[in-house]
Amino acid sequence: MDPFLLSLALKACTISFSGKRAESLHGYCVKTKFVSYVFVGSALMDMNMKIRKVCEGCLVFDEMPIRNVVLLDCDYN
What we know:
Radius of gyration: 11 Å
Number of domains: 1
Structural class: mainly alpha
Number of helices: 5
Low-confidence stretches: none
């Protein structure tokens, strides 16, 4: 799985609120270091926040090497 496909899979987990798949994909992102890609990191953070795993989302944000204005302007209500 490449980073582009992975970011789409993360978005699919966000839409379906699939907790087990989300955990598996999160682990895969960390293991393969794809979290360093800004679009994978932002999709991972978005997924974690929307499935109510705020601590994990904050950790992803803290570990991202590149942050942009899109990440800082999210609405998680």
